[in-house]
Amino acid sequence: MKTIYLVRHGQTFINRYDKMQGWCDTPLTNQGIKEAENTGVVLKDIPFDIAFSSDLKRACDTCDYIISENCNRHELQHLSSPFFREQFYGYFEGMNSDEAYRMIGGPHGYPTREKLLSAIDLDTVKDYMKEADPYHDAESASEYWQRLNQGFSLLNQLDDVKNILLVTHGFTIRSIVNRFAKGKYNLLHGPQNGSITIMKINDKEIKITDYNKLEL
User: Fold this and answer.
1) How buried is residue 126: exposed, middle or buried, by Cβ count under 10 Å (0-12/13-18/19+)?
2) 127-157, pLDDT tens digit by residue?
3) What is the 8-class DSSP label of residue 95?
4) Which of 52, 61, 63, 142 has the fewest CB atoms within 10 Å, i.e. is most exposed?
């Protein structure tokens, strides 16, 4: 099996202001840079064979900071792909998170983010989001997984690869854990910026062995 080290990018300004950040992109804060550097130190002795990231700048920058600390840094190739982007939030991009979740969950009887995410499966949340988006541009669960599954297929096709660094996003990591380790972890709150989630993958199964770790 291949071991994938899923890392959430470092803090951005939109994270700091608690706004919705899917395909919209903002730079890492000074704290976010430090988080990326710290994660690089934690993972420095993992001999990564290849590094992937979302093609959004916050993930690319975080990946580069991690690579700069790695024992294989001089040979390590960094590839970015839209397959590993965060969910697209459509109309809700850049909106205050509490306000957005009130619009998404309120019509279904969940007036707050906490009540919605504690009661409803994340794939259903995606569908509620698309429904609430007046333009219906936000990704539904089926649209989201069709995209992400292309990324998993790409990883599976890599030959002679054992350890993979993959820098992606909070709701995406939470969605992956929700799907492949359902009920094993508390997903009411997303993974911390710079945290590490470990996934094992082959052509038959995907499993999660660690979630939201700052140390290994």
Assistant:
1) buried
2) 999 999 999 999 999 999 999 999 999 998 9
3) S
4) 142
